[in-house]
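Ticket #4471: structure export looks truncated?
Reporter: QA, pipeline team
Priority: medium

Steps to reproduce: submit the single chain below to the structure queue and open the exported record.
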Amino acid sequence: MAEGFFADAPDLNLTCDGVLVAGDHVVYLWTFTGLHAETRNPLRITGWEQWDFNGEGKVIASRGWFDATDYARQVTG
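Actual output as written to the record:
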C-alpha cells in the first residue's frame, strides 16, 4: 500500500498520530499529506496499520486501513 501512496504523491509526508499496544498487537495511527502527482491536488489522508507480533517480536501479520472514497475525492478535487 505504501508504494502506491508514494507513486501517487512523491512528496508524501507521513506523520505518526499515535501508537496503541495491546499484548502482541500494535496499532499505528498515521496521516499523510502531499500533492497528487498527476492532478497536483493537495492530499490529507488518515489511516492506521495493525501489526501482530509473534513471541520473538517479529511481525506475523500487517493490515492497513484508510478511507478510499475520501482519497479518490481528494485526488479528483
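Status: closed, not a bug. The export was complete when the record was re-opened. Leaving a note from the reviewer for reference: Residues 20 and 45 are 19 Å apart (CA to CA).
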